[in-house]
Amino acid sequence: MSADSPRSQSCTCIAPINIAVIKYWGKSDEDQIIPLNDSISLTLDTDYMYTKTTATISTELTKDSIILNNEEASGDGVRFQNCLSEIRKLAASSKHASTVEKSKLKVAIVSQNNFPTKAGLASSASGYACLVFTLAQLFELESHKSELSALARRGSGSACRSLSGGFVQWFHESQPCVARPIAEAEHWPQLRCLVAVVSNTSKAVGSTEGMSRSVKTSKLLEYRIKHVVRDRVEEMKMAILQKDFVKFAELTMQDSNQFHAICLDTYPPLFYMNSTSQAIIQLVHRYNEIRQNIKVAYTFDAGPNAVLFMEEAELNRFASVFHAFFGSIPHESFFRGKIPDPVDSTKDVEALGPDKALKGQVQYTIVCHVGQGPKNIDPTG
Ligand code: DP6
């Protein structure tokens, strides 16, 4: 560091989570994290869920360190080190002497998710996106925006999609392998998302291990890659660009179902959904039946939590039905984020046929919309 630069410098940023509507499942290169297929995701707003990361560089630090959710994590984790060394390489090749100097210093990372990771909400995507974005701000690499997605990918594949806001596609054949927005967050302002946190006691196989097992053993995954997913990505892109909710919803549900079918086709099989997840799927299909149109869609990642999509006009009605079925706490505690207005759901619940056994099976639900990418929250940022 030059004599006139500070001995220590920090930067704090936040990054969003993203939910895939066309799933990434399977790698062609495990070390580089290159996926077998393109995927499409929606970046969720950071009003309620985000990762916040502070990165500090200092001449006084003697080693890299990372504190995750108040616990010291291993700073020599392969993926953390991969991200760090890639970003240092980028900084070392900079035209700016100050960036080159900063790249030589050790860093201290403090990262916190403001949502409970124990609830099984994906944290690696927002976590690695935030790490890379914060370091890029600190090293003044903002102009390298397109490369940052590739750097986050080395931490966790899905993280490369959290560097952009809005509707995002991750291109498996692009060089470098990155994600880019299909449409901005403002493109479809009516779209709403409910993240339902399902009670969960069992520990599932992690995504990395799970997808590696699927690549080795699932014929259905092979079929998906060869015959299904390419066309589905194009159809999904069109549905998003045309704001065609019915098409968007059908493709989202079909792709989630195919992903979980692949999990069952994996040997030994992977069980990510539980009986509550299945009850949510059934409720959504029955609800769409009584509404005589597709008004709500579900998707599930590698866990039992449901992510439900609908347009704003349907939100209050569906949310009240959902609460009547699955909630055992008051409406205003069951929903977090922007709380939907409660409406009388008696007729809908009668038509759907109430099921008392489901009460309390969803702990709470976070209401969100499509949002922006990471941002620097330093007062001077
Ligand atoms: C089911 O990105 O967590 O959420 O690249 O091995 O870190 P690694 O896996 P990860 O996998 C996410 C899988 C998924 C689908 C998706 O987000 O596309």
Automatic annotation (TrEMBL):
Residues 15-173 form the Diphosphomevalonate decarboxylase-like N-terminal domain. Keywords: ATP-binding, Cholesterol biosynthesis, Cholesterol metabolism, Lipid biosynthesis, Lipid metabolism, Lyase, Nucleotide-binding, Steroid biosynthesis, Steroid metabolism, Sterol biosynthesis, Sterol metabolism. Residues 193-376 form the Mvd1 C-terminal domain. It catalyses: (R)-5-diphosphomevalonate + ATP = isopentenyl diphosphate + ADP + phosphate + CO2. One of its GO terms (cellular component) is cytosol. The keyword Lyase applies. InterPro entries: GHMP_kinase_C_sf, Mev_decarb, Mev_diP_decarb, MVD-like_N, Mvd1_C, Ribosomal_Su5_D2-typ_SF, Ribsml_uS5_D2-typ_fold_subgr. It is an enzyme of class 4 (lyase). GO terms for molecular function: ATP binding; diphosphomevalonate decarboxylase activity. Its EC number is 4.1.1.33. Coiled coil: none annotated. Gene3D superfamilies: 3.30.230.10, GHMP kinase, C-terminal domain. GO terms for biological process: cholesterol biosynthetic process; isopentenyl diphosphate biosynthetic process, mevalonate pathway. Pfam families: MDD_C, MVD-like_N. PANTHER family: DIPHOSPHOMEVALONATE DECARBOXYLASE. This is Diphosphomevalonate decarboxylase. It comes from Daphnia magna. The lineage of its organism: Eukaryota, Metazoa, Ecdysozoa, Arthropoda, Crustacea.
